[in-house]
Amino acid sequence: MAVGPMKRSTLIGWCLAWGILSMPLGAASADERARDQAIALEDLRRKIAGQVQLSAYNLLDELVYQWTQSPPFGQPTPVIIAGVTAPVGLGAGFESLLENHLSGLLVAHPGSNVILSHCPSCNAVVMHSGPKGTVVSRGLDNPEALAKLGGPGGRYGLYLDVAAEGAWLVLRARITQLTPDLPIVWSRTLTQSVGTPSLLRQQTALKSAEDARREYLDLLNDRGPFTVPIRFAVRAYEAGDSTSVTPVPLIWLQTGFELALGQARAWTASGMLGYAWLPEAYDGLMVQSRMSRLISGNSHSLTGPDIYLFLGGALVTVYGPAIAPLRNDLQTIDQILRDPESAESTRATFGAWHIGLEYRVGNRIGASVFLENMPSYNGSDTIGVFFENEWIDFHSLGMEVTFCF
Amino acid sequence: MEFWLYVLLMYMPSLIETARDPMNGYVAPNATLRTLDCEPISTEGARRIAPGRVSDAHARSDFLNRRAVVCRERLMPLGVRRPQDDALLSNLRGMARDMAGAVAEAAPKASGRTWLVEVFHPDAALSYKIGFAVKNALLERGVRVTDRAPSLAAGDVEVLGVTPQNKAYPLACTRYAAGGGLGPNDALLAVVLRDPRATIMHAGVCVDGQWRWVR
């Protein structure tokens, strides 16, 4: 499109006007972006500080633990916290947290022989004029000036520095004697890599990493391979094709033993005895064994739930008037009730095998659901099946709650 | 032709493996790799850290070179600190150890003296950390170290401020000795950022008024 001279100047004018008008807007959006970036960076730093905090505490715990094992001084000695610095990029709040934690540890462990001392003039800026000139410095860095101010002559200053170096958190500590020569009398560098779990030691009872691990293993082994489960189970049955009478659900109380076949508790085996009783309805006895396989991981969790797949078998004998529907020679309830002796002798004895899933928490409490096949009732008209399919008849649907001791 | 195809097939797995190895740097690392801090470790160490990940060598050799690299996520993601500071801090331990080693080599009688450490870096926080690390590294080598800082007269500072860098450090060293800032039993280790864009620090020692670059 051809643009005449007049039109071109108008166009340039409009462009200039637009540029001038949009300048403050562009500057404002740049400011907003910078502000958003600063907020995002601050959030990120806060998140990192939260993640690093436990590791830094762990390093301080280790430092004080080492002091309790090998004190830097032969006798209790006053020490001033001369400086605590956080990793570059993290703020002064982090330094305060570290200082508070260290103070708590030192107060709780007088055996370290490091006694915290208060010295306001040590961290204050002091000015000292002498024959060599005038020196402006922190009190700690100029012991001569500090001595004249009545400072802590001959005491010690503790310097701590926490640095984030790649994947390592590094704690450096040094103790300097506050005499004119400022000799460093003790130093240590401790490191911890990313991913190393913090020991979360108790502030009042520090332990070595080896001791903490031993305690952890002791805790794991505390239960031993044997546990004693107490189980409440309900087995429900379906009515068969030839009857409309649904068998009464059997309620069982079971107990026995459970054996873990390894520390991981990936495989367990159990043997149980069960008793069923409902007044005026039935009594029953059961022997049951079961193999369970952990399917939610390679080893059982100390903190989360576990899921086991189990397969087992049982031998059951039940008797009483309510058991009639479980007999293949079908009698009606009226027939049984009319003949008390028959009621006593109404007994069903059968074998069964079951498959199911158990949800267990902390190896203390579990809930499970299972399906059971009773071979002697295959093709039975008196007992129906759950989840009808071509391959196998599940005659019983059961649910259990288990408490382990 | 068949011969070259055979050669190509023989070496293809090895070439692909070499190209994929981030340690070689043939392929630009992706964003995830850049957030990792990787270091080579021995295969024994790798088997201890991650059992089953590095297979055992066959008793009669299996013509495989096993090399293990352990990668950990960086504590400080990229961008939180200035890239130059990050480069310096990421290997602070190694740098401090090297400095202490250089001192021991340059001044064999280092342990007989008391060492002062000065760091010349524009960032005060970084200077403090570098100084701390170097002092600890020297102490680990059994060297006597002090927190004392050598002092110069105001006139010396004024002159040094306008002296070219290559002459300033030897001159400062002379003035430290002459002015009593460094005693006869003292020595100074100066850790210097010679170029503001550099990500390595240089080290020089001042012993008996004599300046020497050691790293």
How would you concisely characterize the structure shown here?
The complex is a heterodimer of chains A (405) and B (215). Chain A is an alpha+beta fold.
Structural description of this entry:
The complex is a heterodimer of chains A (405) and B (215). With 405 residues, chain A is α+β, with helices and mostly antiparallel strands. Chain A has 2 domains: 118 residues, Rossmann fold (3-Layer(aba) Sandwich), CATH 3.40.50; 181 residues, Porin (Beta Barrel). Chain A contains 7 helices and 16 strands. In chain A, helix 1 packs parallel to helix 2. In chain A, 33% of the residues are buried. With 215 residues, chain B is of the alpha/beta class. Chain B has 8 helices and 7 strands. Chain B is elongated. The termini of chain B are far apart. The interface between A and B is large, with 38 and 38 residues.
Shape, principal axes of CA atoms of chain A: elongated
Question: How many E strands of chain B?
Answer: 7
- The helix-and-strand class of chain A reads alpha+beta
CATH topology of the largest domain in chain B: Rossmann fold
Question: How far is the first residue's CA from the last residue's CA of chain B?
Answer: 54 Å
Give the helices and strands, then pairings.
The complex is a heterodimer of chains A (405) and B (215).
Chain A: H1 5-69, E1 77-85, H2 92-108, E2 114-116, H3 120-123, E3 125-130, E4 133-138, H4 143-148, E5 156-165, E6 168-177, E7 184-193, H5 209-222, E8 226-227, E9 229-237, E10 250-260, E11 267-278, E12 282-294, E13 305-319, H6 333-338, H7 340-344, E14 347-361, E15 365-373, E16 396-404
Parallel strand pairs in A: 1-2, 1-5
Antiparallel strand pairs in A: 3-4, 5-6, 6-7, 8-10, 9-10, 9-16, 10-11, 11-12, 12-13, 13-14, 14-15, 15-16
Helix pairs in contact in A: 1-2
Chain B: H1 2-20, H2 31-34, E1 36-41, H3 43-49, E2 68-73, H4 83-90, H5 92-106, E3 114-120, H6 124-140, E4 144-145, H7 154-161, H8 165-179, E5 186-192, E6 202-207, E7 210-213
Parallel strand pairs in B: 3-4, 3-5
Antiparallel strand pairs in B: 1-2, 5-6, 6-7
